[in-house]
Amino acid sequence: MARFSLAQNAKNLGRYLRxxxxxxxxxxxxxxxxxxxxxxxxxxxxxxxxxxxxxNEKVANSTLRATFQSLECDGRLPPHYKPFKRWTGPLLxxxxxxxxxxxxxxxxxxxxxxxxHPYTRLISCYRDKFERERKGASYRRKxxxxxxxxxxxxxxxxxxxxxxxxxQELMNSHWRIQYYNVFMDMMRYDDVIRYEQLxxxxxxxxxxxxxxxxxxxxxxRHRHEQSSDELVERYFTPALKALVQKSYQLDFxxxxxxx
Length: 259
Known about the structure:
- The protein has helices at about 1-25, 35-40, 60-70, 100-105, 120-135, 135-145, 155-165, 180, 200-210, 230-235, 240-245, 250-255, and strands spanning about 45, 50-55, 110-115, 190-195.
- By secondary structure, the protein is α/β, with parallel strands linked by helices.
């Protein structure tokens, strides 16, 4: 076990250094190191099972990451695996691929992403990050990003007004415009799956990509007792819907969601 751990540490270090090179040197996947890091950490690749997907926060992201990382190694995750340190997991990053631009053009690689109605995604984000959390460094960071006060509750309308003033490249990934969050401006997908259809679509997708996967392969994570899909009329006024329609117009148009 010790020898394996040392070997795994050395492999992780090599992957981390390749990630650093990808992030720091100019490439087509972002004009700044922060944006290149965002791209590199959000794209998951399996060469063994010939698939690629982009993570999309507040769109079953934790479930998809956990499920596909586990399937990639038959449920035996490396001893030094950390979910948000991509270089420790079995699924690869763009920085791990010697000629990533060529891989993007290969028809044998099935490329997919999952998107969600902008209204319910924003409700889910607000409930999780501003209603339920309301403490800790992560909460304070998000409040500062939006220029909102720390000493009182942030209302939903206030949250929407603040994000409507942000440029997309500065948005936190939990509320960033999904067109950019899944890199529609850089990649072409074989499947763009709606979150609303995911329960029906995911079992077949897993069967196609991982034929040996068991029936209980989906590792569900972080679900509210009441779905955000049921709360649109509680959270949104007509004026707030109009605000979101303007800010997230690309998502409504690209993914065909009704306003």
